[in-house]
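Hi there,

I know you've been waiting on this one. I reran it after we fixed the sequence typo, so this is the corrected version. Both the input and the resulting structure follow.
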Amino acid sequence: MRNTGPARFLIPVGLILIIFGIILLGMKTDNYVETVGKVTNTV
């Protein structure tokens, strides 16, 4: 018998991430304010 435990977890998680990505791509960015910045320090 095959161990399908990881697939039962990873397939739904992957589908949720794909759906979330599609929703984010569909968001309109027209109302965003564009700014200019400068990186002064990195950790």
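Quick highlight: The chain has a mean pLDDT of 88.

Best,
R. S.
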